[in-house]
UniProtKB/TrEMBL annotation:
Catalyzes the phosphorylation of the position 2 hydroxy group of 4-diphosphocytidyl-2C-methyl-D-erythritol. Residues 198-274 form the GHMP kinase C-terminal domain. The gene is ispE. Signal peptide: none annotated. This is 4-diphosphocytidyl-2-C-methyl-D-erythritol kinase. Pathway: Isoprenoid biosynthesis; isopentenyl diphosphate biosynthesis via DXP pathway; isopentenyl diphosphate from 1-deoxy-D-xylulose 5-phosphate: step 3/6. It comes from Paenibacillus protaetiae.
Length: 284
């Protein structure tokens, strides 16, 4: 039997860091949602007790470093599954982009293998397993829109923001999340984005208040390291996006756009100097 799972990319509408914790992680407050740019996983049971990963993308690890491999190994070990699985990853989400591509693949593998092996693991437990793989994985298990706290693994589902277009632009640099958090001086953050304002904007379906409330404290680190990300933000604003922000630790910048008529100008303007530009929708 073959099964398929979609692994959508996430964006952070808001990312605040409250403090650095003793375990080295940072206490965060994030509002995350999904967009319809997605990897696709094909999973097939193997009679041999092995995990095989393949992908059309030549630039990701296919061994135990792959997060989908780690998800399969975790679920096999924890539930004593003696069967194997072949997982093909059709990668569409850019890698090391701030869009949680690897985390979403891991989450899709957890959901898919739960079905393939009929394990009936409740979603809450899948999230707990996901948290062992990475801070973004629990959100990628549930999807939707959520307020994430703790190191990102504590989730409160909220309603989806109103539908809109999302322009994603990734400059040709790879950013390490660990490096960005490592360079952040949490006690020196002077301006914190307000989660309560964003939650209220989403609750009221107020697109313009959502655009006004966008904020990400990791921008300070990434924009200083890579001025081209700042240039990209400024270009997107100049070209007419309603709200613009860097996603996660970057370097992808997203623009929220309400009117379809604006898209061609923004897309063509960005494509002039950035090869990777995607026009997608919020997943609502
Ligand atoms: C930047 C975001 O993607 C925003 O959604 C997340 O906060 C990071 O999520 P992630 O990539 O799943 O992160 P993990 O794989 O758990 O951790 C990668 C590294 O980022 C740092 N890290 C991550 C999450 C967090 N709350 N505090 C941290 O300091 C840690 O140094 C960790 O070693
Ligand atoms: N299935 C996978 N897809 C993409 N990258 C993977 C995968 N498994 C492991 N990786 C590795 O994980 C690293 C980060 O890639 P990923 O695309 O998940 O980053 P990201 O979008 O910045 O994630 P986040 O937003 O959660 O910080 C890369 O170095 C990549 O080699």
């Amino acid at each position: 039997m073959k099964i398929y799972e979609k692994a959508p990319a996430k964006i952070n509408l808001l990312l605040d860091v409250l403090r650095k914790r003793e375990d080295g992680f940072h206490e965060v407050e994030m509002i995350m949602t999904m967009v319809d740019l997605a990897d696709r996983l094909e999973m097939e049971e193997l009679p041999r007790d092995t995990i095989i990963i393949s992908s059309q993308a030549g630039y990701i690890p296919l061994d135990e470093k792959n997060l989908a491999f780690q998800a399969a190994k975790l679920i096999k070990d924890r539930y004593d599954v003696r069967k194997g699985v072949y997982i093909h990853l059709d990668k569409k989400i850019p890698v090391a982009a701030g869009l949680a591509g690897g985390s979403s693949d891991a989450a899709a593998a957890l959901r898919g293998l739960n079905r393939l092996w009929q394990l009936n693991i409740p979603e809450e437990e899948l999230c707990r397993l996901g948290a062992e793989l990475g801070s973004d994985v629990p959100f990628c298990v549930t999807g939707g829109t959520a307020l994430a706290t703790g190191r990102g693994e504590k989730l409160e589902q909220i309603e989806n923001p109103p539908g809109c277009w999302v322009v994603l632009a990734k400059p040709p640099i790879n950013v390490s999340t660990a490096d960005v958090y490592g360079k952040l001086r949490a006690n020196e953050i002077t301006s914190h984005p307000q989660a309560k304002d964003m939650l209220s904007a989403i609750r009221h379906g107020d697109f313009h208040a959502i655009c006004d409330g966008l904020g990400n404290v990791l921008e300070k680190v990434t924009l200083e390291l890579y001025p081209e990300v700042l240039q990209l933000k400024e270009s997107m604003q100049r070209l007419g996006a309603d709200g613009v922000l860097m996603s996660g630790s970057g370097p992808t910048v997203f623009g929220l756009v309400s009117k379809e008529a604006k898209l061609a100008r923004i897309y063509n303007g960005l494509r002039g100097f950035c090869k990777e530009v995607y026009v997608v929708r919020l997943l609502t």
